[in-house]
Design brief:
This is Glycosyl hydrolase. The chain is α/β, with parallel strands linked by helices. It has 13 helices and twelve strands. It has an eight-stranded parallel β-sheet. Strands 4-5 form a two-stranded antiparallel ribbon.
Amino acid sequence: MRPDPITGPTGTPPAPRFGANYVPSRGWFYSWLDYSGDDVRRDFEDLAGLGLDHVRVFPIWPWIQPNRAIVRQRPIDDLLDTIDAAAEFGLAVSVDFIQGHLSSYDFLPSWALTWHQRSLFEDRLVRDGLTQYVDTLARAVGTRDNVFALTLGNEVNNLWPTNTTTAAASYDWARELLETARAAAPDKLCLHSVFDDAWYKPDHPFTPAEAVEMGDLTTVHSWVFNGVSRIDGPLGPATISHADYLVELAAATALDPDRPVWLQEIGVPEPDVPPGDAATFVRQTLAHVLTNPALWGVTWWSSHDIDRSLADFPDREYDLGLFTVDHRRKPAAEAIAEIIAGPHPEPVKPERTLQAPVDLLAEPERRDEVAPGSAFHREWVAARVSGPVGISVGRD
């Protein structure tokens, strides 16, 4: 039996769930190369102290599978220790497989690069290697009761266009790997994750169909540096309602009207949202999205800042954490802790619904008509000021 998509495998806690995308405070994801269970437990103590109930963790694919014929056990054991550490602090775990893309960096194994250059999504040899990797990892983490979900990877559509693909190929790629994960870990949620170019860019080869038809629920990533914050500023209606807009758009696009939507990433990016506005952004954004009946839960990006001694990250990536690298709570963390302690807004069925100009499943080439700044988006934002607003795609 598959886990309940609202409550997870244990039946608790009730929706909505609150969690964090785990970025290690010491050494970023390079810490997997010099693993310290003590450091992980110190980080998880921070997160449990906020009242969070889950974390999303990111093993690095090429460090586990450095050769197509080798899947290393030691990093898998380190991942299992991370999962066990989360359990010690009452945290459920979602595991992403293909990293893939993290904080602006791409991590791909050498056997898919250099003179071996092959498309992740189209080449049969690479896909066979990935199938072995996903099967092995899913079987390993599937042994842990506090693992509730498996996601193919973090925003895998960021790996295009360096890995050529088409809409048909990317869809088939995700379908195949989800089937592999589901067979290996049949009692876990199996999910597919894409960033919002799949929702808003007309020529993008990953489409909304992948988000709403693949996996056991829909995941969305809401980032206001996609142009939203330029519409009306860091605390303007368009900015603080974007997460709700994307959740509502995803819910409206799905063929299943009861399909939940996981706000799997959201954060406070500078300079789009200045540090002094961070807590207000959190409160107002969550006040909007928590009223959406489709919402499964919210997972903040990220748990901890990136140490500025590490070079060459885009500047906004360093300060996205709920905690500093020395474990101090930031204003966003305080705001989230207050919201978790509640009471938080109850889901509200919208009294007003706006007709979208396009069905994204039927005409993905018209995605720009619902993108931030489009006429429809601006109409929805204006209406949302007065209360929750639904979206209809006018599907027969």
